[in-house]
Amino acid sequence: MFDVHTALDGASFDGAIRVAELTGQGMIALRGDLGDATLRDAVSALTGHDIPAPLHAAWSGEVTTVWMSPDELLILLSYADAAGAARDLQGKLAGIHALVHDMSDARSLFRLTGPALRDTLAKLTPADVSPAGLPVGMARRTRLAQVPGAFFLRDAQTADLVCFRSVARYVFDLLKTAADPAGRVGYFEGFPEP
Question: Could you report the per-residue pLDDT of 84-95, keeping only the tens digit for each?
């Protein structure tokens, strides 16, 4: 077994929010008919929860499923489990039209935490990150400045953000700049959570 190295070796930054690259993170991309009973049952067996509603994420324990498009899910689990889980899932879906791929080495995951979370995201994305536009559990696949990315809120002050590994340094630097306390906007501080 080799050492797992993330794009930034677990880099972190503390500013208006904490930005931390998560290490040991596995990711499985699944494409197929999300309404198919075989696919739904296989995903539930792997994750311990139902497929999330469109534009949402669902999680139980350390496993998270993010709705990425009408025919795509991203399953987040430990790196050590990802390859085996992808093989098992592929086996369970052998009789239907579906694509399962271990994307663990192709993407990076950041955990963002702090009360200025919404203001930090608002500096980087055109998505509505207000409490009404991005409630807890909702996922957004969008742009982060000049690159694609996706994020979802785990709670009012915690979000997970996924990007391609090839742009991880760029995204980390963007997040550090946006989280610089000197550039604090404070726009969302008065908004109540729904």
Answer: 999 999 999 999
Contacts of residue 62, defined as CB under 8 A and 6 or more positions apart, other chains included, come to: 77, 78
CA distance from start to end of the chain = 46
CB 58 within 8 A of CB 74: no
Instruction: Give Cα 19 distance to the centre of its chain.
Output: 14
Q: Is the distance from CB of 11 to CB of 109 less than 8 angstroms?
A: no
The pTM score is 0.90
What is the C-alpha to C-alpha distance for residues 51 and 44, in angstroms, rounded to an integer? 7
Correct CATH for 12-180 of 3.90.1150.10, 3.20.20.100, 3.30.1360.120, 3.40.50.1220: 3.30.1360.120
